[in-house]
Amino acid sequence: MQGTARLTGQTLGAVVVTALLAVLPLELAPRVGLGVAAVLTGIAGLVSMLRATAKSERRDVEGNPQISSLVDPQSIVAGTDTTTVPAYPRR
């Protein structure tokens, strides 16, 4: 899936640069191309941050099933929990 996304991005980038070189003067096309690339990269970064934020909020609401399966709920209620829960890094 990631390979397909990269190849699609490279192909679309080549098409946009070709169109810019065909339409704009040769002195201006590279600058406009870099500007378009910077704007699209910024938009992609924002979308990625929004997805990561939504995913972490959803995980906080649902809890982490990997951690909750390691802890015995009865021992927590009784106050005798001695389970060592490994810290999982946030994704």
Arithmetic mean pLDDT: 78
Major β-sheet, in short? Answer: none
User: Low-confidence parts lasting 5 or more residues at pLDDT below 50?
Assistant: none
Q: Could you say which structural class the secondary elements and strand pairing correspond to?
A: mainly alpha
- Report helical residue fraction: over 70%
Overall description:
- The protein has helices at residues 2-23, 29-62, 65-68, 73-78.
- By secondary structure, it is mainly α.
- The chain has a domain at 25-62.
- It is elongated.
- 0% of the residues are buried.
Key features of this structure:
91 residues, mainly alpha, single chain, 4 helices, 73% helix
List the helices and strands and how they pair.
Blueprint: H1 2-23, H2 29-62, H3 65-68, H4 73-78
Helix pairs in contact: 1-2
A few lines on this structure:
Helices cover 73% and strands 0% of the residues. It has 91 residues and is mostly helical.
